[in-house]
Design brief:
Elements (H helix, E strand, L loop, with lengths): L1 H27 L1 H20 L4 H24 L6 H26 L5 H31 L12 E3 L3 E3 L2 H31 L6 H38 L3 H11 L1 H27 L11 H44 L1
Antiparallel strand pairs: 1-2
């Protein structure tokens, strides 16, 4: 009898995975993931170099983020069994886009006041508030009672937290993520009244307090990482230039290339790599193989949307470089003409 029970427990998840994951693939299938990755790359390029494109990037991704949030809640509320790894994948996808696409946009519209921006801000707060609440619930449950609400994959649930986390280490990782989630959940509650006071124009310092509070511990950790990365790029190259007697060339390069933008782009690119790795490794380690095809309308739509945004950004970057070259050639021609006169 014991042998029969073991067979049922070990085979049932595999049977379910092979039969029903085709439905789940509409939530995070290959076409969906590629489309989102292309949107992230578009934002990565546009944020430091094409400031005028931030609004369009954020607007397009806000619609995707809303759809992903609805899909996440559908996944959690499904009456059928759902793998723990699937919730992890969805949370990583949503937060990856939030930090790479929406956070730079948030930094921009805090200095602007118009009806459209306020509407986008409210929508974003509702989406993020819902995901933060669900994320806090998920990780607290994982840390306290383990995988009782969802199903472990046949080989055991694996998670990516800077390394391969599995087995007993999953509990430790869950407690760490629960701490971050609770912090992220509690800080907006404190920030809302501060933000309201600021909007009423009663306290000017409130905007600073709201910014620091809403960021949360996870965002501060990201800022610390960005500061370290920026410090390395800001300190190491000048020393190399000093010891190689190329300081003048380094200063000219820094001025011509607008190094600050490149540092921001480098930071965001590393975060992009980490986000994509975490999603793809969780899928691979948990052997969720039915989500690696572009075989539905939703896959094609999101992929085409991401490809269109990426193509548009690349085209505008190329046009910007061409206009800069034309302007530089015109300046050089005027200088030569002035010298001849």
């Amino acid at each position: 009898m014991g042998k029969e029970v073991r067979i049922v427990v070990s085979v049932a998840p595999k049977d379910w995975a092979s039969k029903d994951l085709r439905e789940i693939s509409d939530f995070y299938g290959l076409g969906v993931r590629l489309g989102l990755y292309l949107q992230w790359l578009s934002s990565l390029i546009a944020n430091p170099f094409l400031h005028g494109e931030r609004r369009s990037m954020a607007g397009a991704y806000l619609a995707s983020s809303l759809a992903l949030t609805i899909a996440l809640f559908i996944l959690v509320l499904r009456p059928e069994c759902v793998f723990t790894a699937e919730i992890m994948v969805m949370l990583n996808i949503i937060w990856g886009g939030t930090y790479q696409v929406m956070s730079p946009f948030i930094a921009e519209f805090t200095h602007r006041k118009d009806f459209v921006m306020d509407g986008i801000q409210v929508a974003l707060m509702l989406v993020n508030g819902s995901v933060i609440s669900l994320s806090a619930w998920f990780w607290v449950r994982m840390a306290s009672v383990g995988e009782t609400d969802f199903v472990a994959t046949p080989g055991g649930t694996s998670y990516f937290l800077f390394s391969h986390v599995k087995g007993g280490d999953l509990g430790t990782a869950s407690r760490f993520m629960a701490f971050l989630s609770i912090w992220s959940f509690s800080t907006p509650v404190l920030a809302i009244p501060i933000y309201a006071v600021h909007k009423a124009g009663l306290v000017t310092l409130a905007s600073v307090l709201a910014l620091l509070t809403v960021q949360g511990f996870s965002r501060m950790a990201g800022l610390i990482y960005a500061w370290i990365f920026g410090a390395i790029l800001g300190v190491v190259p000048p020393y190399i230039a000093y010891f190689t007697h190329t300081v003048d060339k380094w200063l000219a390069f820094r001025k011509d290339m607008n190094l600050g933008n490149w540092i921001v782009a480098g930071e965001m690119f590393l975060f992009f790599i980490c986000s994509v790795l975490s999603i793809e490794l969780i899928i691979a380690w948990n052997e969720i193989s039915e989500v690696n095809g572009i075989d539905s309308t939703s896959h094609i739509i999101l992929f085409v949307l991401g490809l269109g945004l990426f193509t548009n950004v690349i085209w505008k970057m190329a046009r910007k470089e061409k206009e800069a070259d034309v302007a530089e050639s015109g300046t050089a021609f005027q200088q030569a003409d002035s010298t001849w006169q």
